[in-house]
Amino acid sequence: MMRHVYRCPVRWSDMDAFGHVNNVRFLTFLEEARVDLLFTLGRQSGAGEMAEGVVVARHEIDYLKPLDWTPEGVDVDMWVSRIGAGSFDVSYDIRGGDLVYARARSVLVPFDLAAGRPRRLTAAERALLESYRGGS
Amino acid sequence: MPPTEYAVQVRFSDVDHLGHVNHARHLSFFEDARMALIAASPSGLPGSPADRGCIAARLTVDYLRPVTYQPGEAAQVRTWVARIGRSSWTLTHQLWQDDALAASCDIVLVAYDYAAGSARLLDDDERAWWERHRGDA
Question: Is B8:B32 a contact under the CB 8 Å cutoff?
Fold first, then answer.
């Protein structure tokens, strides 16, 4: 199974008064990993439509370990765990080395922002997603 | 010494409704470059066991060009010391994108005793370290 690994820097301001990275910021790390795979790699592989509109329908996240600011940042492992006609799921591990700080899953919907409604996956998008297909 | 270079990640969520990076986010870019420098200095990373205490007293920012979001691309912060006093010093940060200067920032840092709640004098080794990072625009 192919995973996409995104090295995500952690900002000093991601930490809160408890001295660790605030739980909300983890969703921003996931977003950066998603953008890297769906937009950057999407354009490179001829599936550039994704950058024109894809919306989040659901997030699930389990926080396993507290994360402190580190100049090394974190790795976000990402793979595609479900592909439907008009939506798909991506799963993630946020980790540093072997230590997993959080596991998450998002339901994503390709979206026509101009028309204001969901659209179906294109063949190129489906091919990109299939190449990162893994278990839940 | 040439300015210290630090690569910052511009995030998707840094962009505001006007389609460019919101001006307030620049302060976080400058902060990350500064924290990397402070962590390497005898002043010590704030909150770490090595921390001798410092605090921001004033900052000014000039915005010259909009910063845009480019997936996979970083922006650069260049930092140097503009002034050193007895208990405070001033850093200059510049934010660069696509080889153009986008913003510059001066920030006054004060050596600070958090337990006493008052400024402290810079130690000799701190002063010497920051002195080596002096520069000029």
Answer: yes
Q: For the segment B65-98, what is each residue's pLDDT rounded down to a tens digit? A: 999 998 877 899 999 999 999 999 999 999 999 9
**Which of A9, A31, A36 has its CB closest to that of B72?**
A36
Q: Does A75 touch chain B (CB under 8 A)?
A: no
In chain B, DSSP assigns E strands to 4-9, 54-63, 74-84, 88-97, 100-113, 118-119
* Nearest-neighbour CA in chain B from A14: distance (Å): 9
Question: Dihedral of the CA atoms A3, A96, B76, B38 (nearest 10)?
Answer: 180
* pLDDT score of A9 more than 90: yes
Q: CB of A66 within 8 Å of any CB in chain B?
A: no
CA distance B99 to chain A (A): 22
Tens digits of residue pLDDT in A11-58: 999 999 899 999 999 999 999 999 999 988 888 888 888 888 899 999
- Could you give the CA distance from residue A78 to residue A70 in angstroms, rounded to a whole number? 21
The domains of chain B, with CATH numbers, are 4-131 (3.10.129.10)
Q: What is the pTM of this model?
A: 0.88
Convert the pLDDT of each residue in A90-106 to its tens digit: 999 999 999 999 999 99
| Residue in this structure with the two tokens 């940060």, named with its chain if needed | B93
The residue ranges of every structural domain in chain A are: 4-130
Nearest by CB to residue A40, choosing from B32, B39, B71, is B71
Q: Report the 10 Å Cβ neighbour count for A53.
A: 15
What class has domain A4-130? Answer: alpha beta
Cβ-Cβ pairs closer than 8 A, A with B, add up to 34
Is the CB of residue A57 less than 8 Å from the CB of residue A109?
A: yes
